[in-house]
Write a structure and sequence with these properties.
Elements lengths: L1 H12 L21 H4 L12 E2 L5 E2 L7 E3 L8 E6 L4 E4 L5 E4 L5 E9 L11 E2 L6 E9 L5 H4 L6 E11 L4 H7 L11 E5 L14 E6 L10 E6 L1 E6 H14 L31 E2 L10 E2 L2
Parallel strand pairs: 1-8, 2-15, 10-13, 10-14, 14-16
Antiparallel strand pairs: 3-6, 4-5, 4-11, 5-7, 6-7, 7-9, 9-10, 12-13, 12-15
Length: 299
């Protein structure tokens, strides 16, 4: 459609400050090519991440703005931040929830970030083949199930909000609340406590515009039970902040930078049409009211 083409044009033409260097995609992330030998779902047809081809995204009038509830936490609510050897994970209380944009309600479990190397980008999803400096995932599970563990095996079990991180000119105050604690968890397995803050600040202010598709966990067991939402606005961090995230992993992992994210999985079919096939990634998008609402850094 014309609107989606306008979106693509804006994304390609919007001035951006990229993290220096490039990171070629490789399949050495803990042997991704062999994951399916031990975890059958890793060889499935709805695997994540994917490359979002904006021109091929299907407009869906049924998509609604994402609504967050309970995301602003008081400072006396302490959150556990852990270096798990792949990235940093911030555990979230179940009082955080998705109350709009999905047919059912989902509770938060944790958030984590996929970083690059000190010289290149590290987002898992790509847009039109472009990888971003980093990517945040906020993980939720369906409240119809008693726990994350129970939910993760059901087709409607999980919902993940994703946003891309880019290098801008100033410090991001919300990401600072996490990054300032990274020196405390330099070693794999180390944990620290982070005072509560407004978790919503880690995501774009405008939650109306996004890409949506049904996919999977990006690491084993690769269950194909994730409803993905990838926001069209990117979050801007300072060069120093992005470097700090990259250097945490560079210092705690002996492996190559390619070990820190899974490469996009090929889309099984080029067009879903009106008949959505189970073996197809149907990437949906919302109606853009004007070209200025397209893919761009957050103001």
């Amino acid at each position: 459609s014309l609107l989606v083409n306008d979106l693509l044009a804006l994304f390609l033409n919007t001035p951006k400050i990229d993290f220096p260097g490039s990171s070629p995609c490789c399949e050495t992330f803990t042997g991704t090519a062999h994951w399916s030998e031990d975890y059958l779902d890793c060889g499935g047809t709805k695997q994540s991440p994917v490359n979002v081809d904006a021109a091929q995204a299907i407009f869906s009038p049924d998509l609604r703005p994402i609504q967050l509830s309970g995301y602003s936490l008081p400072a006396n609510k302490l959150l556990k931040l852990k270096n798990n050897g792949h990235t940093v994970v911030l555990e979230l209380p179940e009082s955080l929830a998705l109350t709009g944009g999905y047919a059912q309600q989902y509770r938060a479990v944790q958030l984590h970030l996929h970083w690059g190397s000190p010289s290149g980008p590290g987002s898992e999803h790509t847009v039109n083949g472009r990888r971003f400096a980093a990517e945040i995932h906020v993980v939720h599970y369906n409240t119809k199930y008693d726990s994350f563990t129970e939910a993760m095996v059901h087709p409607d079990g999980l919902a993940v909000l994703g946003a891309f991180l880019e290098v801008g000119h100033g410090e991001n105050q919300y990401y600072h609340e996490i990054i300032k604690h990274l020196p405390e968890i330099q070693e794999v397995g180390q944990e620290t406590l982070v005072p509560g803050f407004n978790i919503a600040g880690l995501l774009p202010a405008n939650l109306k515009f996004y890409f949506h598709y049904n996919g999977s966990l990006t690491t084993p067991p690769c269950y194909q039970t994730v409803k993905w939402t990838i926001f069209n606005q990117t979050m801007l961090l300072s060069h120093r902040q992005v470097c700090q995230g990259n250097e945490l992993l560079a210092g705690s992992l002996p492996a190559s930078p390619c070990n820190w994210y899974r490469c996009p999985v090929p889309v099984i079919c080029s067009s879903c049409g009106s008949q959505r096939r189970d073996g197809c990634h149907c990437i949906l998008t919302v109606l853009l009211p004007d070209v200025n609402a397209g893919f761009k850094p957050e103001e």
